[in-house]
Amino acid sequence: MPYFDYDGCQLHYEEYGHGAPVLLVHGLGSSTRDWEYQIPALAAHYRVIALDIRGHGRSDKPSERYSIAGFAEDVAALIEHCQLDAVHLVGISMGGMIGFQLGVERPELLKSLCIVNSGPEVKAKSPRDYLEIAKRWSLSRLLSLETIAKALGKMLFPKPEQAELRQKIEARWPQNDKRAYLASLDAIIGWGVRERLARITCPTLVISADRDYTPVAQKAAYVKELPNARLLVIEDSRHATPLDQPQCFNSHLLAFLAEVEQAAPTPLKDPKAC
Question: Which residues cross the membrane (predicted)?
Answer without folding.
Answer: none
